[in-house]
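Loading example: each entry is read as three labelled lines plus one structure line.
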Amino acid sequence: MSAVYVVLEERDGRVSRASWEALAAGQKLAAQSGGAVTAVVLGATTQALANEAAARGATQVVRVEHPLLAHYTSDGYTLALQQMIQKLAPPQVVFPHTYQVRDFAPALAARLNEVLISDVVAIGDGPVFTRQLLQGRLAGNYRHHGDGPCLISVQAGAFRADEPSSASTQPAIETFTPQIDASQIRTKPGEPFRGTAQTVDLGSAPLIVSVGRGIKEADNLPIVQELATALGAELAASRPICDNGWLPMERQVGSSGQTVSPKLYLAVGISGAIQHLVGMKGSQCIVAINKDPDAPIFEVADYGIVGDLFEVVPALTEAIKAAK
Amino acid sequence: MKIIVAIKQVPERDAQVRIDSSGKWIEESDVQYAMNESDAYALEEALQLKEKHAGEVIVVSAGPERVGTTIREALAKGADRAIHIDCDDLAQRDALGVARLIADAIRTENADLVLTGLQSDDLGYGQTGVILAELLGVPHSTLILHVEKTDTGLKVKRELEAGWFQEIELPLPAALTIQSGGNKLRYATLMGIKKAKTKEMRVVNAADLGAPAAPVAALESIELPKKQRSTQIIPGDAKAAAATLVEKLKFEVRVL
Amino acid sequence: MTSLSATLAEPQHFSLPEKLLFLVLVIASAALFWRRFGPILHKILQSRKDPDFHLAPIGRRVWNFFTEVICQVKVIQQRPLPGLAHAFVFWGFCAFALVTLNHAAVGFGIGFLDPAAWYGRIYFYLAAAFAVACAIGIAGLFIRRFFVRPRWLGQKVSSESGIIAGLIFLLMVTYLAAFFTTDAAPAARVLWWIHTLTLLLFLPLIPHTKHLHLVLSPATIFLSRDGFSQIPPLVGDEDFGLVTGKDITQLVSLQAYSCVECGRCTEHCPATNTGKELNPKEVILGMRAYLNGPGPASELPILTGEGGVYVSQKAVFQCTTCGSCEFQCPVGIQHLPIIVGLRRGAVNTGTWEDDYGSKLFNQLERGSNALGISALERDKFIQKQELPIFDGTQEYCLWLGCMGGYDPKGREIVAAFARVMNFLGSSYGVLKKEKCTGDPVRRLGNDLLFQQLAEENLKNLAQNKVKKIVSICPHCVRTIQEDWKAYGAPPEIEHHTEFMARYADKLPRIADSGVPQVSRLRPGNETADDARSVTGHDFSRAESAEKKDWALAPAKSEKIVFHDPCYLGRYRNVYDQPRELIQITGTLVEAPRHRERSFCCGAGGGLAFLGEETGERVSHARAKELVATGATTIGTACPFCNTMFRDALGEMNGTAPQLLDVAQLIARNLGG
């Protein structure tokens, strides 16, 4: 009897990394009851996804297939999963906490008279689910009390996706076809697109490499540019760099420029004056490279390297290229 | 266009966090409250839609008496009237319970559009808007940055991960959860506050809306998180430090 | 050739037709005067009454009247040569009072001052002396306005000024010429009539030109608001500041009509001097144009968009509230209440749409400081510096403020001042929680938010039983002491330079011999030789050196230029204390514009939070001036000035002087 179903999400035709993390969380949860873990994939054609799950070590896979699931819609996924859950009755269902899951899982839970325990960062014995409250200043422990399935979503990065174990030799794959009528899909999704190519949208950039006066001259910028390219990050700068015309004004981060909150903000040769700090203090992770150990930027950084950027940055670029 | 905006009053970002005697929530006595951030953006979106297409903006908020301040702030910024769901036991309800409360209070309004913020700054479930849509039986979308009215309903801009966006079309009536940062927020003005004094604020007692069901997902206890943010200075020469940093970026920050 | 015993010639006899003509002309002149002046007076009186106006303390008003009007002290002091010329014209007018009366009386045959009598002779000779001075004065002013053309008088040549100057000159000349003829001569009669016609022409011209100040400015100065940059309270539910004509008060009207267009306000305005749209003179003249146009009962908004007819909203929000304009004005116009009043009108009604402004207001609506930083950062700073927490038992509460609590430079100043207080054994503590005093919000005109901040802070201070506050920031000092009064009773507060100056004799001085007494080295960063050679120190380390407030050992020969903060100098009249402290640790050097003429750093009026400036940056302009003094150190007394100059100096690649607050200058002499 499978205790835990883990709903995997697709990105660009493959299972997303966050889903593998959810699978790991599911395995941890299943270990408490000694049950098995079933992977669930959704879509119009799910063969490839199912194979991927099997190759990753999933012993049981459910393929929820329907033409109307070709593109994600809240109605489609909710209906499909509601029917699947009502038929297969898993006691626990795990989702990765992605934008997509946030869009439908609460509605799915409500339909089952349940409540999604969202954005879980730890699973303790019980099971007890830990979530962050007050923007990380508190941790809260939750228990599930309902009669129906326990639905949870796990935070990206909270559970480590295991390295793929050997492919499952006899994966049990079943296909479930939900009943969905076109009239039940009430929203019409468009094709995903990026922000306008011309303007620099630092505000939504997930990775930013920012350069300050430590770079000394415009001619030295390529060093940092290469780092940004290697990381796949946007290039930004503190005010003096833009004032000098070395980079366009729209790349300025600070009180008179843009306010950013990327996943990673790498400050190179930036001292950390208040006018700059107010523009990037919302970053999730701040890394600073500066030769001055007293630079105020180190007060707010999560990681810091005290050193000459002309040596550290090229070394970092090499290391990143090697790791990718 | 009749728009209802559900807002939540949450502890201020700078609030001192001390766990109260019950161990289930923070000490509220010296905490100051403010409007939830993404709700402020939802309100702004509603006000802009009203300015473009005429109509009415109604704010609804559940909570004890102190919630009145936040409601008045919303009225000061331009909402037309308000519904205060007087409720002292909000913490005892789960997301479904809260959404049921709100749905029951606003159902008869038959709004064209219901907006909520993406998630609250205190509990951060991010679910109320979606469940509300389900309970009211209307289509919804989440993480919305921009709303446009069309002949057939709405066209909205939704945020996707990693810098991607998507446009979604949906008919009215509908519900949307609004992401922060889509608009520039207007500030509360003296004139707004004075006008707010004459606007209607209807109080609905939670008790009148039915007794709450026992929570399905219950918060049992809270504690201070073990990890505190402090700066890790990575030692070593350029090459060694770079290598260590890449490790961190890969496994701890997870951006590689 | 006449001898010195010549007296003023007065025609002895006027025929009846002449007398009648004279009477008619007098009546006509007076009527024409009233035709223009009457409505102006009416507009002023029709304006709303000032809610906070008190005639008391009358002593101050009388004193100001005496010094500014009678003695022309401000006119002369702030612009010596033209000021003196004007003073002579004015004194000439005063001296001429009796002359003119007598002159008219003569026309009716009832002259009362006999030129032959001893008292007449003395008086008329005295008047003659003034006439000469006045004539020279007015001629000089004419040449200056029309040929020298100082830029603050504007591009356009004012023909009315020329006419008036000509008339005054003619009056003086016709008076003086009368000494060179006799009573009976026809020349006397001609001169009398020319003088008379000139007078009668002059009178109705007064209310049509800026010479209205002849009538109004004595009243303007006498009735001016009590206090510098005095922002009036809002009254009632409909008052949002200066929105429409109905909000204009009597004082504002009176002041708007008193403007003589001298341009002293323009000359000293940091915005005008760096190419911004704002020109304080234009704000006042814009108000006047509005009064002449829509008028005080009008409901048309005063602030229009760019290039508007009356006052530009964009210009009004470029003001740093430095106060130079108000300080300089010789006729008693108080620009700041008007500018802040216009801002209030826009902000309180939500018609000011500015991204940075909205962001600032939203940040303060939901957070504790103007920078939008979590209060936890302030807690961390307090812990790291091991600052004592105020618990009601200490004598002083050390107020950090937003800059002192969150800005890296501000924090260094706090740390340095704490060292000084520790050295002096002062009893002090830092509050657990602080909210922004609301200074930027107050100056930008957001009364709703300001009230919230003031009330919360006052409550916090009362709960903590704070009696005395000392602060490193002049903006906090001003706002707490003056602006919070509208919402409660703030505790005593003083600036840290005032505090330190009281203990000046206890603070270690630099030996006059120039040998540094203290040489605090940061291990590994500088050699002992570097520390001892003051003149040859390495400026390229200015960036890192400025953080170590004891890195460059002080010596008496070190030249320190002090920049007077607007909110400490003009606003609070504190000029000497910081200087006294600087002289403990080096040689004081003055910038060309110093003390009351200090040139703003550009951060005030909420502008530090409003993003990009157009044109040259105010901070850079001032920094250039300070650097040009050749000083090796710039001394500041305000964390905003400090941060603004840090930016400006940072762009002077390698040759910048070091930048230190007075507290840091003192702290570096402390041992241990």
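Chain B touches chain A through 74 residues (CB under 8 Å).
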